[in-house]
Amino acid sequence: MADAYEVTNQRPTTTAGPGGVVVPAIEVTFTTKPSGVEGSVRIPQAGYTVDAVRQAIEHQAGVLEAVQNL
What we know:
This protein has one helix at residues 50-68, and strands at residues 5-16, 22-32, 38-44. β1 and β2 (22-32) form a beta hairpin. The model has no long low-confidence stretch (mean pLDDT 94). The protein has a three-stranded antiparallel sheet with strand order 1-2-3. The protein is 27% helix and 43% strand. The protein has one domain (2-14, 21-68). It has 70 residues and is of the alpha+beta class.
């Protein structure tokens, strides 16, 4: 589904893990196609894989495009 978005950046950050514990993460930003809506997802570093990022972006990009087209 990469035809539906383009990754524009990735950077280290933190996110809340189980129990509110702060854990290292990577924030990946993207732009949807064709609408050009910017979005982002945060993936904990321990689970930072191509498949995890792809799945998170595909879900979020789908929601952003659907809302954009309301």
